[in-house]
């Protein structure tokens, strides 16, 4: 189960990096040796708007939580090529989400999954034969109001497919569904957690 302690550790790692300090030790609030595939997501609150994505990268190979969270806290914050690297002055507006991925199942076809329950990972072939992959975490399709078909189309686009998407193309996709245990923490709550630890 993902917890706010996982998110707080990601904040620890990012803050230490941006301030040029040694990376914080792994806290005692979670089992750092437990292994999961995981994603770390950073979002930013803009005035009058909902959260906007600032970075999201993860790994489908199970990793020890201590190492995985430390690696992907920074990778998603600084090396998501869709965005500029997160800066120190953005911290007060940030939230961090940690998703631990579970229950991977190969779907019977591209519609064999449930919106809001499953994340989807697709593998497909480009016209030149090159294999491409793309994924959306379980919350994405529901947040965007997408149908299953629309979600698969968006995954194809995310994976670099630029041509007309036909039914035959959708049916050629290999789709794996999975579930996620997610926790989210605002920066203001992170600061409160750290203050309580210092006072204890």
From TrEMBL:
**A Pfam family this chain is assigned to:** AMMECR1
Tell me where in this chain the AMMECR1 domain is found. Answer: 1-194
Read off the InterPro entries from this record.
Answer: AMMECR1, AMMECR1_dom_sf, AMMECR1_domain, AMMECR1_N
Domain of life (superkingdom): Eukaryota
Family matches, as PROSITE patterns: AMMECR1
Q: What is this protein called?
A: AMME syndrome candidate gene 1 protein
